[in-house]
Amino acid sequence: MKSTLEILQKHFDSSSIKTEKEDLENYGTDWTRYFNPNPVAIFFPKHIDEIQKIVLLANEHHFVLVPSGGRTGLSGAAVAKKEEVIVSFDKLNQIISYNELDQSITVEAGAITEEIQNFAKEKELLYPIDFASKGSSQIGGNIATNAGGVNVLKYGMTREWVLGMKVVTAKGEILEFNQGLIKNATGYDFRHLFIGSEGTLGFIVEATLKLTRAPKEKQVILFGIPNMEKVVKVMNTFRAELDLLAFEFFSDATVDYVMEHTHVGLPLAKRYPFYTIMEFESNNGKNTELVFSIYQKLYQKGWILDDIFGGDEQTIKHLWGYRENISSSISSFIPYKNDLSVRISNIHSFLSETEDIVKNNYPDFIVLWYGHIADGNLHLNILKPNKLSVKEFEEKCKKVNLLIFEIVKKYKGSISAEHGVGLLKKDYLEYSRSKEEIEYMKLIKNIFDPNNIMNRGKVFDT
Ligand code: MLT
Ligand code: ZN
Asked: In angstroms, rounded to a whole number, what is the distance separating the alpha carbons of residues 128 and 150?
């Protein structure tokens, strides 16, 4: 019987296959640090028909394929640890077309998120999905995980921006969904099934994305805030009065890591337990005035303790750095990451209950909070103390996780708001989805992928 590698070598040009140890390690993992990569090879298709061909071969010869974009994911969905073949989109990364009247753009799945943003900018439009890893993440991965980021409050998740999609299913058919239409009431919308499917149903190979008007005169204000209760109250006060582009928060401890990693000083003259960063459109100064009048009231009440305003591009970038650089600044400390969400109305009680669990169970661990408070999405990161091995640390975190997930369940929240399930969260899926739902997910997977060749073992075991 031929090995998987021999099959690949027989059917594809050797320049499209990589097997060097360093490449296997690099392409075999994502930004999670808990899994040991062990793929057979990495395949770099240049045409969609090559994807179709490898899918048919995988079905015939029973090997497993792992779709691979920028591998900036945080749940292990792009990890290959069981002798899979990685299918990289690095060479399918073109912007195919732009339609001025439709205000849409059609791209190959390997197109880098930031390049799409820049292209939109050249056309004086906006592709609004934005997050720190945009410089290397690819749109196919963004769609496969329904990526969120810092502007969800205003623009929603990736799902809102996908007008059409071309996929190669796990059976090898090429299907086109929704053809760039805004309205299309003709039954089940498979586009939405593939969005967030984490590569378990097939390959997303092309997408048509909606663009929108770019906000003019963006302004940013960073506040120092005494506690989480006030973080929520400050946010609600502002968003009741004006249309915000973003409202994010981070705890004081995160600032040390960003300062160290990016060589900046404190964001404000003194330290405060929490910080928020709020972005809005100036609207010819009208919103700026409104923001300052609300700010003054909240300052007098003691809900806001200090502020710094950014009106020019450089200051805005500097202030955003305190939030956007947290993830990269802490990554060398192998954080145990939680990506939780609850309804806004439950945030406050959810947080105080979770904080109690965290304080009681991690008295000597460094605990960092940050995230998209306006989406009810909190990133809880626990840093590994030097004295513990990665394994010991992971074991301890997993135990406490169960307590936290019980609270998530009680509030009908999500154990993964935007990072996906992948390998990291699949054992906990039942905390957020019912048994019946999971059973339906498995049935759907089986319809598209009867031989289980696509990203096997991700999201759930089949
Ligand atoms: C973020 O919001 O910074 C990203 O989701 C990454 C992370 O959680 O570390
Ligand atoms: Zn996030």
From this structure: 9
